[in-house]
Amino acid sequence: LFVPDDLEPGLEFDAGQQQSHYLAHVLRLGEGAEVLLFNGRDGEWSAAIAAKSKKAVRLKVLDLQRPQPPLPDLVYCFAPLKQGRLDYLVQKAVEMGAGVLQPVITQHTQVAKPGIERLRANVVEAAEQCGILAVPEVREAEKLERLLANWDKERRLIFCDEDASTTNPLPALQAVSEKKLALLVGPEGGFSEDERKMLRALPFVTAIPLGPRILRADTAAVAALAAIQATIGD
Ligand code: SAH
């Protein structure tokens, strides 16, 4: 369970309504049962159910089980999509190893800036689900040009280019030597010609194809992250 507070042995607190329901009625845990907590800062803590009441489950923190692992050093840059698909895309990115989520506003981005609180809630849910102890960082949306102008040159930016001339991403990915990585996926409307030209001209950018078909942006994200995991990996 994700608990966004400082934890220490002996601390007792009431779980939130949703989490209490999950513990008492979904997992049907009784007093004394042990659960694992993480706060995205110092790692994984064991805790026991101290008491159950109508309104909440009371937890008692036992001790630190596992220190907080580092976040994967992959920055996932994405043009925001319509909310439902955005929720999906953010969860997949976290499951597939993104450590930082960077919304990017491009020329053809059709949606308003995404609600950062909702993105963060999706990230926490995905982190809980895939059992990572860290909570990936969600940054404020940035315009593509500004993001590239301030880019950390030691970080390789892998750009999914639907107009690439080849179809297999692996050769380009295998040529990447940097450990610090970022991935950029465009909006439903794709990148503009100017954006594509600008990206291809940058020394820290590697353009990759993702097969011969046009993928939806959220499909492209998973396909690219899987290809990266298969070659460079974390
Ligand atoms: N331009 C297309 C759709 C863009 S798909 C159109 O207008 O229909 C959204 C994003 O997914 C693209 O910007 C690109 O980053 C990625 N993408 C989709 N298919 C891809 C492919 N075959 N190769 C590389 N990237 C792809």
From TrEMBL:
Enzyme Commission numbers on file: 2.1.1.193
Cell location: Cytoplasm
Record-annotated Ribosomal RNA small subunit methyltransferase E methyltransferase domain positions: 70-229
Gene Ontology molecular function: any one: methyltransferase activity
UniProt catalytic activity: uridine(1498) in 16S rRNA + S-adenosyl-L-methionine = N(3)-methyluridine(1498) in 16S rRNA + S-adenosyl-L-homocysteine + H(+)
Keyword set, alphabetical order: Cytoplasm, Methyltransferase, rRNA processing, S-adenosyl-L-methionine, Transferase
General function of this protein: Specifically methylates the N3 position of the uracil ring of uridine 1498 (m3U1498) in 16S rRNA. Acts on the fully assembled 30S ribosomal subunit.
Highest taxon, organism lineage: Bacteria
CDD domains: RsmE-like
Major subcellular location class: cytoplasm
Domain Ribosomal RNA small subunit methyltransferase E PUA-like: 18-62
SUPFAM superfamilies from the UniProt entry: alpha/beta knot (SSF75217), PUA domain-like (SSF88697)
Annotated organism of origin: Mesorhizobium humile
Keyword Cytoplasm: yes
Family listed: Belongs to the RNA methyltransferase RsmE family.
Entry protein name: Ribosomal RNA small subunit methyltransferase E
Biological process annotations from GO: methylation
